[in-house]
Amino acid sequence: MLVRSKSLSIPVGERGSTSAVLLTPSGEKKDVAVIIAHGAGNDLYNPLLSAFAEGLSRGGYPALRFNFLYREQGRKMPDKEEILVETWQAAFRFMKESSGLQKMRVVAAGKSLGGRIASQAAAEGVLPVAGLIFLGYPLHPSTDKEKMRDSHLYRIGIPMLFFAGTRDLLCDLDRLKRVLGRLRADWDLMVIEGGDHSFHVPRSTGIDDEEIYKRIVEKTLEWLGHS
């Protein structure tokens, strides 16, 4: 399916505006749109997020990805969480009010920080999305597995899809599985064997990034079709 791409500027209240890219299928659309946020050290043009958005849109799901304000302004240090949440809300508001896709349900997806902030906002009831997709959830700092970022996940009642690499230093797989077993919401997990926090696998596997991205898209399309 052909995809239309449109570069946008999304207002974030009185804080200014941020860049975004909206991909829409040229053919029949599904009834769900996906908003995608980047991780702490990258932006909306991250190769994983670009491939993810492209694959979803070719599958019939409009996909909007956006920059947090700190990246838009050329800064490396992430904004305070309240500003990150405001930016997520601005992207959601754009999708529901100005995208031409207002009747669609919205699923929030994010790489690391982007997914964590979406889940916190959803848990607080300030981001009314229909589902959450985590492209590598930062369950704990790389240097301290005891400092878990899981308490809000148990308050979420919408379906969640997790992608996790077996070499992810920010998400010990055994700890993640214990967390998943305690969730009250429906969830699914796809494990990327050999994948790190960005799902890069060792060259010795003979599997390149594009193949991993393809598998992630295929799993997400399957999950969206049943959610």
Q: Give the low-confidence spans.
A: none
CATH architecture designation: 3-Layer(aba) Sandwich
In whole angstroms, how far apart are the ends? 22 Å
CATH class: Alpha Beta
Specify the biggest β-sheet: 8 strands, mixed
Number of helices: 6
Fraction in helix:
25-40%
Percentage of residues in strands:
15-25%
Content-based structural category: alpha/beta
CATH topology: Rossmann fold
Tell me what the structure shows.
It is a single chain. The protein has an eight-stranded mixed beta sheet with strand order 1-2-4-3-5-6-7-8, sandwiched between helices. The chain is an alpha/beta fold and 227 residues long. The protein contains six helices and eight strands, in the order βββαβααβαββαβα. Helix 1 crosses helix 6 and helix 3 (81-97) crosses helix 4. The longest helix is centred in the C-terminal third of the chain and has 18 residues, at 209-226.
